[in-house]
């Protein structure tokens, strides 16, 4: 197991304590919903005229026709069908084959796991152009691997891109860091150790935890966070509606079937691992 993966597993316990603290902040997100972040990838792409946060604070009714057109432009040639919608908070974690989108005055949103496949500097032009706006903010966090990617384009030009994780290190670091990043790079947010991790736990490979910086990036450019306490000026992501769409590539495999097959393989691996452990335990530590 890679060092970063060891850390990702160990650090999830510490984040659970943080989630318990955030559940007492009174911001309306339950502990159970906050804990859902630990189970996968959160992704969002926001195109806006000016600051997205200013426009999202009053965003309560999306143009469904414009949202459908946005998805069609983002995934040309794909079959697009309507699906149940979600709030912005929940919509950042879409299921396979489903994406969420919204079109408000001056801001367009797309949430889709497939976005995480793209390195910002290699982002397809049609994905950047979809939704218009003079600023595009791209944000992906994967809590299983502690991975963060965020990027900002101004007027179609990539001005900042950061992609990193404990396993891969810094994959991409383009442009000058923003002010909210400074304290992280200065070492003011080290990953603290906990006694139950044991003395043999290797030091965290990065100077800070990527998901903590990711929350600050999300607040700076989108005005909301997925974990932690809401500040008075934060956007209530639960109140921002998104339309749901089922997007299928007619020439590609069905994502639901691919996910089901993957889950079956993982379940089989776990069963074999459990059986091996039980067999070994029944014969003692030395196998005799």
Task: Offer a concise description of the structure.
By secondary structure, this protein is α+β, with helices and mostly antiparallel strands.
Task: Provide the descriptors you would attach to this structure in a database record.
nine-stranded antiparallel beta sheet, alpha+beta, disordered C terminus, 9 strands, disordered N terminus
Could you characterize the architecture of this molecule?
The chain has a nine-stranded antiparallel beta sheet, with helices on both faces. The protein contains nine helices and nine strands. With 288 residues, the chain is of the alpha+beta class. A hairpin with a 2-residue loop joins strand 3 (98-104) and strand 4 (107-111). It is globular.
């Amino acid at each position: 197991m890679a060092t970063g993966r060891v850390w990702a597993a160990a650090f999830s316990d510490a984040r659970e304590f943080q989630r318990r603290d955030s559940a007492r902040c009174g911001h309306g997100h339950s502990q159970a919903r906050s804990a859902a972040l630990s189970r996968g990838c959160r992704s969002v792409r926001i195109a806006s005229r000016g600051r997205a946060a200013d426009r999202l604070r009053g965003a309560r009714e999306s143009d469904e026709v414009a949202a459908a057109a946005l998805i069609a432009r983002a995934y040309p040639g794909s079959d697009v069908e309507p699906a149940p919608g979600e709030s912005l908070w929940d919509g950042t974690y879409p299921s396979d084959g489903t994406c969420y989108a919204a079109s408000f005055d001056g801001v367009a949103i797309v949430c889709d796991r497939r976005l995480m496949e793209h390195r910002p500097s290699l982002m397809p032009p049609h994905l950047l152009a979809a939704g218009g706006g003079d600023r595009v903010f791209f944000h992906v966090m994967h809590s299983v691997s502690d991975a963060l990617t965020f990027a900002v384009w101004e007027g179609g030009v990539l001005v900042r891109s950061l992609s990193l994780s404990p396993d891969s290190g810094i994959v991409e670091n383009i442009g000058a860091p923003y002010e909210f990043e400074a304290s992280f790079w200065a070492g003011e947010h080290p990953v603290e150790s906990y006694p139950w991790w044991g003395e043999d736990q290797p030091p965290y490979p990065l100077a800070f935890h990527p998901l903590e910086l990711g929350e600050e990036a999300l607040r700076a450019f989108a005005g909301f966070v997925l974990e932690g306490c809401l500040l008075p000026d934060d956007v209530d992501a639960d109140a921002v509606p998104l339309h749901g769409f089922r997007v299928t590539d007619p020439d590609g495999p069905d994502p639901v079937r691919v996910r089901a097959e993957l889950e079956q393989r993982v379940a089989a691996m776990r069963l074999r691992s459990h059986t091996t452990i039980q067999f070994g335990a029944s014969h003692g530590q030395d196998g005799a």
